[in-house]
């Protein structure tokens, strides 16, 4: 490609609404262009990256035995009503009526349509296993779209769906996709981690997120550097302290803590470690009649150590909270605790269910709110000052440095950006949509399904969050819009430079290098800045001075300086750097 | 690809709603699957064809210097309001509101968005010419979607837009796209014709449709076999008769024609040729005030020869009808003609504007309605029995056999399916959206634009309408989902067949042939029927009997019988047939 024939539009400044580095750099590099909130034109430079990502995904999906099809963007509501998602999903599902007033959705995902296809096309166990995928435009009407392609409204995803005869076969399909995803992210050249993820209401442990490691990532991922343990923060298990609960050494004392309503403030005031304090969180659950009216409510007190954070996903797995919970209202709190929030605690309660985190259950001589404004208790002890908790459960986020659940070391925490997800669906959709095949015994049986997504456009943002410096994007070679760029200096006035540039351009093309010749006639500084911003992995600079000595300058995107390379060795050098 | 790993779902019968052969065959061959009215899943077999078509289009667009980007499916209404199309377009424009109540459209085309990109990105004449294209999913909410991919609601199109500094440069861009389209349709292996098309309100003669020739086509295309003249029926000019008007030989006579209200019936009753009769069509135009209320109407009588058809596009170019016309109401007809339709004619009218087709203006001694029920005039003559017409114009469709407008022979008419369109837009969009660039003189000037569409999914239907027989689809090699299929007979019980099939499969793949190995274990008859239905160009049948003699059977999709070919020559034979 010659630059003069391409559309290059780099910007010195990122627009004001670009908050994160990948968004800023993609805008500045002219890869995307905003059309509306969360809706972007994929400009030629960005589309090249998307196509490279898609090609790698497609190759590895096919290698893993998946078959590509394409399901529509605009989907009739009927199928979404079969699974109940047409009503259940919130306003992020973009609904539209056609000219006849019929309901449709702009697809955010395609479980319904693929299950509909399977129930018609896959009739016998002999056709199984089958894995069908597509790469398609999707739409999710985010309340607050932001971060460019990272949380856009219109985006491109690959989604695959596997259909199997039984859970064992479904496990094999899952494993095959897991392996394919590893190959995909390896080939994309990204540093990533596959982490076990929560499976929500469906249950089972077959869900993994593929997280691109980046300090700016929204997700916390937990792993053990000395073992294979890795999970997202929602799932990573926090163990009880090994030592167990120590004997009480202090007496319970009502202690004035005027104006100190947080554990940190109380600990500071009392000169105690934060780990000696207990944090109280008040939830409520509702019982409803058949009309959906609330007929009774139960108030819950959840206790975590002062330096720990409640994990709402884990809380949602506690017996009694599984069907859904909410944070209690101020009215409910005052009715049950006789006190406003900030000074709540577990001592002297009536009719409140108390759930203690495993760590809290093992504490002694702890500090907690006294259910009295401006007061806390110190020296509180289970069994003596208050009854043992109704339930003890893992309801908090793990923290770095604690024991790994597999017993193989201590946990570390990284930030990550979720770019892929493999999920064992089981029979959720096949049963809802009566999608069955004839098993070997001649009887209809619902498919065991899995779904497997990769956010194609999101991957661009994630790769940039991982790979950038002060000059711009640092793409992995396999994702770069161009692998190499030739920057001729003074091409318009020097025949030698022009000839050398054209020859090198032809030679690199012949060698299979995806090369761009910058024939725009820009000054060297402007050229270099553009291609560093765009993130082309290898740059070759040709100028009269070097050519007199038979050399050109080669510089990798991460290199601090250029290397002089004899003209005859340029192709080999460029190829070597791309492979290295 | 091995059949066992693919998704093959052929049907014996087409669904009842499939009216035309391409729709029936695509459904039967399992290429598409209906999801809703005019909305289809592209199944793996069909998607392979789409991808091959897209690849050829993409290659030729890039070869012609166009640059690919991707514009969103969901587009903000604001841009569509700038050009007025948000309000002007009918219900075929699918409109949707997002969660905040803002208006969006599901794009049927992208003039607005590309013009918005151009006015931001293309700032100087130095960046011109530029041609930007994308291949994207589109939606048009057809009132009555039908014919499968031919008139669907969701479909895939390539659209390109050129931006030029002046009309001359725009003409060159147009020519380059015209040439690229010829290469594309040549490579697709289709019989097609590029025909001049009407440019509507924009004017100029720079519009061509690319029509795939098929007897079942919706469009009539006119061409001269002995010259390069070709136009669609809306545009093809009908010349006046060479001989001119003959002198009157008959007297005007009021003739009873009871119950005979059509020209054909009247001619039969009177024993006259249909070419002696004149057909009367009554139109009306309205004058409106600023509020849009009709303040006056004018009634028009359009006359074409009894065997000719009115061409409404041509009528719309007549002075006085350009601003829009409608067919007159029965009330208006009775008020102006004193007679109900069926016996209307041009004699004795007041306040009606009469437009005669060129042929009618040259007639003498003609038959026309008498404005009296059950009566016609015979022997009518211009100037003597009625005034010369107010206007003489070309307002009819040409018919086969008449003189070509270029004077180089006589016209022929074929049926065609429009699959591509190149169109010189001029400044329509750039002026409406104030899209300018800085010209060499430093002044802003609106872009000269062209737009260039190809209906990717429609092409599949058109190719099948052109290429099919009683057994199924006959694809051109470049569009076929697979180029060749290996059908091993008794693969499960014969090691020789199995080995030969695997070897041939590997050898054909190594030779670059897109080959499918049918390893499903189906009976020969079922295998053959499937691949004839799907339309694979070359079939190789391997069986024990032939292999004993060292031969296999090769049969092209159009061949009446198979040819025995030595096993060692199979690859060369298959390749030769694919190239032939």
From TrEMBL, chains A, B:
Keywords: Aminoacyl-tRNA synthetase, ATP-binding, Cytoplasm, Ligase, Nucleotide-binding, Protein biosynthesis. The keyword Protein biosynthesis applies. It is found in: Cytoplasm. Its EC number is 6.1.1.15. It comes from the Bacteria. Its main location: cytoplasm. Residues 33-476 form the Aminoacyl-transfer RNA synthetases class-II family profile domain. One of its GO terms (cellular component) is cytosol. It catalyses: tRNA(Pro) + L-proline + ATP = L-prolyl-tRNA(Pro) + AMP + diphosphate. GO terms for molecular function: aminoacyl-tRNA deacylase activity; ATP binding; proline-tRNA ligase activity. It is an enzyme of class 6 (ligase). Pfam families: HGTP_anticodon, tRNA-synt_2b, tRNA_edit. The keyword Nucleus does not apply. GO terms for biological process: prolyl-tRNA aminoacylation. Homodimer. Consists of three domains: the N-terminal catalytic domain, the editing domain and the C-terminal anticodon-binding domain. Catalyzes the attachment of proline to tRNA(Pro) in a two-step reaction: proline is first activated by ATP to form Pro-AMP and then transferred to the acceptor end of tRNA(Pro). As ProRS can inadvertently accommodate and process non-cognate amino acids such as alanine and cysteine, to avoid such errors it has two additional distinct editing activities against alanine. One activity is designated as 'pretransfer' editing and involves the tRNA(Pro)-independent hydrolysis of activated Ala-AMP. Belongs to the class-II aminoacyl-tRNA synthetase family. ProS type 1 subfamily. This is Proline--tRNA ligase. It comes from Inhella crocodyli.
């Amino acid at each position: 490609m010659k630059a003069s024939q391409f559309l290059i539009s780099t910007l010195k400044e990122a627009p004001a609404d670009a908050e994160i580095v990948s968004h800023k750099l993609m805008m500045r590099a002219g890869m995307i262009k905003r059309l509306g909130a969360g809706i972007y034109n994929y400009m030629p430079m960005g589309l090249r990256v998307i196509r490279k990502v898609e090609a790698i995904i497609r190759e590895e999906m096919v290698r893993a035995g998946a078959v590509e099809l394409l399901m529509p963007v605009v989907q009739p509501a009927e199928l979404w009503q079969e699974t109940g998602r047409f009503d259940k999903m919130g306003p992020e599902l973009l609904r539209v009526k056609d000219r006849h007033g019929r309901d449709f959705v702009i697809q955010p995902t395609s479980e319904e349509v693929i299950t509909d296809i399977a129930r018609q096309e896959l009739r016998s166990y002999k056709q199984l296993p089958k894995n069908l995928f597509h790469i398609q435009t999707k739409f999710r009407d985010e309340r607050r779209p932001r971060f460019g392609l990272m949380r856009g409204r219109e985006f491109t995803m690959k989604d695959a769906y596997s259909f199997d005869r039984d859970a064992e076969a479904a496990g094999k399909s899952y494993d095959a996709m897991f392996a394919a995803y590893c190959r995909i992210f390896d080939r994309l050249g990204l540093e990533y981690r596959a982490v076990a993820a929560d499976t929500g209401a469906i249950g089972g442990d077959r869900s993994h997120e593929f997280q691109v490691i980046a300090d700016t990532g929204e997700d916390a991922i937990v792993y053990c550097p000395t073992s294979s343990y890795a999970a997202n923060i929602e799932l990573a298990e926090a163990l009880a302290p090994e030592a167990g609960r120590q004997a009480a050494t202090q007496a319970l004392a009502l202690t004035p803590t005027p104006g100190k309503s947080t554990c940190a403030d109380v600990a500071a005031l009392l000169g105690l470690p934060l780990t000696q304090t207990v944090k109280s969180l008040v939830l409520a659950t509702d019982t409803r009649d058949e009309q959906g009216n609330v007929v009774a409510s139960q108030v819950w007190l959840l206790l975590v150590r002062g330096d720990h954070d409640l994990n709402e996903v884990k809380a949602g797995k506690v017996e009694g909270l599984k069907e859904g919970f909410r944070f209690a209202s101020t009215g409910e709190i005052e009715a049950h605790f006789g006190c406003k929030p900030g000074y709540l605690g577990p001592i002297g309660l009536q009719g409140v269910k108390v759930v203690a985190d495993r760590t809290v259950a093992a504490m002694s001589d702890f500090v907690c709110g006294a259910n009295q404004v401006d007061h806390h208790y110190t020296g509180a002890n289970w069994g003596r000052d208050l009854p043992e908790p109704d339930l003890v459960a893992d309801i908090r986020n793990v923290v770095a440095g604690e024991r790994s659940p597999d017993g193989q070391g201590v946990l570390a925490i990284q930030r990550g950006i979720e770019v892929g997800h493999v999920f064992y669906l089981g029979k959720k959709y096949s049963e809802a949509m009566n999608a069955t095949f004839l098993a070997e015994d001649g009887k209809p049986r619902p498919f065991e399904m899995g779904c497997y997504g990769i956010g194609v456009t999101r991957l661009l943002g994630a790769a940039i969050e991982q790979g950038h410096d002060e000059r711009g994007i640092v793409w992995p070679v396999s994702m770069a819009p161009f692998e190499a760029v030739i920057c001729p200096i003074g091409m318009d006035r020097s025949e030698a430079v022009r000839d050398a540039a054209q020859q090198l351009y032809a030679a690199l093309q012949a060698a299979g290098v995806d090369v761009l010749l910058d024939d725009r006639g820009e000054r060297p500084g402007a050229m270099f800045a553009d291609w560093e911003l765009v993130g082309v992995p290898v740059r070759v600079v040709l100028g009269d001075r070097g050519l007199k000595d038979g050399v050109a300058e080669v510089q990798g995107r991460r290199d601090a300086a250029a290397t002089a390379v004899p003209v005859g060795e340029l192709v080999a050098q460029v190829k070597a750097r791309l492979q290295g």
